[in-house]
Write a structure and sequence with these properties.
By secondary structure, the protein is mainly α. The protein has 2 domains: 106 residues; 137 residues, no CATH class. Helix content is 52%, strand content 11%. A 3-stranded parallel β-sheet has the order 1-2-3, sandwiched between helices. A 3-stranded antiparallel β-sheet has the order 4-5-6, with no helix packed on it. The radius of gyration is 31 Å and the shape is elongated. 11% of the residues are buried.
Length: 299
């Protein structure tokens, strides 16, 4: 009765598991399992989630074993997702639901009715209308395109602010600058994709403000690795990036070569003063870079 009413007439099913599985039905280990398997057999879309938030060591061992067994049976088919926080579940469900609704809407969209054939009009060829009359003839190809459905999903509550999005964009710019042996468009695509994978989102607007600390750690880690690779594989590119960053930082704090370079040399206890950063060794250039950016950050 339940299967016929709720499953057979449904377009989409959603199931969320924690540590209880349900009661056997005689067909499956639980009614929920029977309904999920029935829906999948009928080719229906199923969104299945298992919670990894709480510790499930407490509770009914038999129920937990049934949950684990069912989860393992779905693993090889790639039919479920897990989440480690409620915010992560919200992001996953928003994305999957939007995709499912879009697919179902397109599937159930009514086809455009064919117009009746009018007198003096003959259809020939592939979508070719041949119109004759008054001793004139016009051949015209007719194209029917299905109406595209655009589903707009707003960002979740507590998503990154405009200022935070701008900061993220700046971090991606820096990572692209220190990426060697790749075109800039390809590098941008790679780093945006990696960020989305790191935050488990499909677009960076869905990153939460509370994740900004983790995003910054991810950025600093990848920047450090990128700089080391660039310094070895593309030393000229690395040097130009460092010089550009130093000059930009100096401009932001209103310092000039004449008054700042002697001060830097003194503070870093360099053997000789310098009048041009382009003549510095790799080691000294890196030391100057770190000091200037530190001064700019604390000003």
């Amino acid at each position: 009765m339940i299967n016929r009413q709720l499953i057979d007439k449904a377009d989409l099913i959603v199931a969320v598991f924690w540590k209880r599985f349900g009661t056997p039905t005689g067909v499956s280990a639980s009614g929920t399992q029977e309904e999920i398997e029935r829906a999948i057999t009928q080719g229906k879309r199923a969104l299945i989630y298992f919670s990894d938030i709480e510790d499930i060591r407490d509770g009914d061992d038999d129920q937990k074993a049934l949950v684990k067994s069912f989860r393992d049976s779905l693993s090889a088919k790639g039919l479920y997702w897990t989440y480690r926080s409620r915010a992560e579940f919200e992001r996953l469900f928003r994305t999957h639901l939007a995709s499912a609704v879009q697919e179902l809407t397109a599937k159930h969209q009514k086809p455009v009715p064919k117009r009746k054939k009018a007198a003096g009009v003959s259809l020939t060829g592939s979508a070719l209308a041949n119109i004759q009359g008054d001793n004139n003839q016009v051949d015209q190809r007719v194209h029917h395109q299905p109406r595209k459905i655009k589903l707009i999903v707003p960002p979740p509550e507590n998503a990154v602010t405009p200022a935070q999005k701008k900061k993220i964009e700046g971090w991606i710019d820096e990572l692209v600058d220190c990426t060697a042996n790749m075109t800039r468009p390809a590098a941008y695509g790679m780093w945006w994709k990696r960020l989305q994978n790191e935050c488990e989102v499909t677009r960076y607007e869905d990153i939460l403000s509370s994740q900004m600390g983790d995003v910054e750690k991810w950025f600093r880690k990848n920047r450090a690795m990128g700089v080391r690779k660039q310094r070895t594989k593309s030393p000229d590119l690395w040097r130009n990036a460092r010089i550009t960053a130093i000059k930009a930082a100096m401009k932001s704090i209103g310092r000039t070569n004449d008054d700042y370079y002697p001060e830097i040399a003194r503070r870093l206890k360099m053997k000789k003063p310098f009048d041009s950063i382009t003549k510095l060794t790799k080691t000294d250039l890196e030391r100057v870079y770190r000091m200037v950016l530190k001064d700019a950050g604390s000003s």
